[in-house]
Amino acid sequence: MTCIHILSIPRGTLSPDGLVKEASEVGLKSICLMDHDTLDSVLSVGDTTSRYGVELIPGVELTTRYAGMEFHILGMGIDVGNAKLKTVLAKMPGERFERAKEISSLLGEHDWEVDVSSLSSSKGTVTTHDIAKAVTNREISAFDFHNEWLSSDFPCVVGTSSMPAQDAISVIKKAGGKAVCAHLLRTRSG
């Protein structure tokens, strides 16, 4: 059995090595490990997959735009050494951090205090989930804060990417991967 679209920390609850171990313990033979706009988790598992007898299908989840909406495109079975993919991904952390500062400023206009310095130590790329965790004066969980203040319809949310979905699909294909739309129902419902 294969499991696709597994996210590691900070989005998930396990480290990349922990995910491989857990996959082995539940009887999975292969997994497609990916994170948002980074290959950090895929590159970090090293020999863990062979130690646990789990095949790693390298992947990435690219944040894109199509028809004015954000779409996440999964790239599965990619060549992590592909130069074009590496170039595209190298731009992401800086863009995402600048976006986080902009969102933090907008939240500040609503009297929310965001510890922006903690965002600079986020693993991978900074997401709205990281921003929710960095709000210091919230009295609800980061999950609930995210859903109430950082969902796609709230004015404090700033677009994450200017990368057209078609460009992401092209990059994934050139890196030898298969492109699939993630979260299709969430994407369709807004």
Automatic annotation (TrEMBL):
InterPro entries: PHP_dom (IPR004013), PHP_domain (IPR052018), Pol/histidinol_Pase-like (IPR016195)
GO molecular function terms noted in the UniProt entry: 5'-3' DNA exonuclease activity; 5'-3' RNA exonuclease activity
Residue ranges occupied by any PHP domain in the UniProt entry: 8-83
Matches recorded under Gene3D superfamilies: Metal-dependent hydrolases
Pfam families membership: PHP (PF02811)
Protein name in UniProt: Putative metal-dependent phosphoesterase TrpH
Native source species: Methanohalophilus euhalobius
